[in-house]
Amino acid sequence: MNRTERSDEKSKFPRQVDDFWSQLSEVSSTFRPADLIVFALIIGFGVLQFFYTDFLTDNVYPADTARSLVEHGFYGINGYAETNYPPGFVTMFALLCIVGGCSGIVFMRAMVVFGTFGFLASYELLRRQAPRAVAAATCLLLVSSEIYFTLVTRLLNQAFPYFFTTMSALLVTRKFESATTLRSRIGWGALLTGLIVASLMFMSAGIALLSAIGASICALFVRNPRIGFARLRIYVAVLLVGIVAQEVWMRRDSPEASGGVAAQEWPIAGFPHSYLSQLRVKNGNYPELGMATPSDVVIRILRHAPNKPGP
Questions:
Q1: What is the C-alpha to C-alpha distance for residues 55 and 110, in angstroms, rounded to an integer?
Q2: Contact 123, 38 (CB under 8 A)
Q3: b/e map of 152-178 (b: 16 or more CB within 10 Å)?
Q4: Distance between start and end Cα atoms, the chain
């Protein structure tokens, strides 16, 4: 190698470093080599958590309910229909049981898989909204934290699959809104609808997705009715399917739909009645205190709000 070639090789390294740092400061959806590094790190933490899972939790209710669903086709346990938690979480475990993975360690590892894919989807979403360095730091700090490691390797919780479906829905929303052909819009719209319904079936908090879509459409109507109507037209099918799915669950969620068992054995509003019934009482843990008034709702919000840090 002559002197000129050595000089060219030396000059390439600073350019590569500058290019890498420029990628970290970039906000775009274009795939870059820096993204591959972030993906590898997130997956690496996921693999570590996957092999360190241990079924030490005392929350065996989802597993027992899944077995009831597989063996008896009944969503509940000991003859009592489940009226509080949507069926998506238990249905996922039931499917694992059908394919031969009906064990606690398999269920725990499913939490890790959903959590890892949730962070991958989160990074994909964030790097389109903020510099790559911010998106990568946010996801890597959370996925590598001790608190998250303990939760995802020890706890059966619907928050992990809900995290994945919600982040994926937000990511797909961008594709859906930017679709230029009817075929692509139908495809992305069907995927978005499926993810929203899945989020609703994992956690009732998924209603926030539908509420956000509705709020954005209302805001557009105030600013420009023509644009608001156009947005409503592309989202109407997504909204209708999501509302119907939630309504079907809420009707099944009522004591009447579950045979009135809850009302017969516990006539006071609150658990084990429906989730909405629990919200109507002053204190879900002490339903005998009676129904909540508007002032009680305000007090409840203030009680659960984060404490203001001291000086």
A1: 12
A2: yes
A3: bbbebbbbbbbbbbbbbbbbbbebbee
A4: 65
Distance CA 206, CA 162 (A): 8
pLDDT in tens, 134-159: 999 999 999 999 999 999 998 888 99
Q: Are 110 and 92 in contact (CB under 8 A)?
A: yes
Answer yes or no: are the C-beta atoms of 176 and 188 closer than 8 Å.
Answer: yes
CA dihedral 191, 197, 199, 203 (to 10 degrees): 180
Cα 154 from chain centre: 19
How many helices (H) and strands (E) are present in the chain, helices listed first? 14, 2
pTM above threshold 0.85: no
Per-residue pLDDT, 32: 83
HEC readout, 60-74: CHHHHHHHHHHHHCC
Separation between Cα atoms, residue 214 and residue 235, nearest integer Å: 9
Write the CB contacts of 125 (distance below 8 Å, at least 6 apart in sequence): 167, 170, 171, 174
Residue type, 104: G
DSSP label at residue 310: P
Q: What are phi and psi of 77, to 5 degrees?
A: -150, 140
Under 8 Å between Cβ of 128 and 75: no
pLDDT tens readout for residues 49-100: 999 887 666 667 787 888 888 888 888 777 777 777 888 999 998 998 888 7
Q: Which residues pair with 281 in a beta bridge?
A: 291
DSSP 120-142: HHHHHHHTTTS-HHHHHHHHHHH
Amino acid, res. 226: R
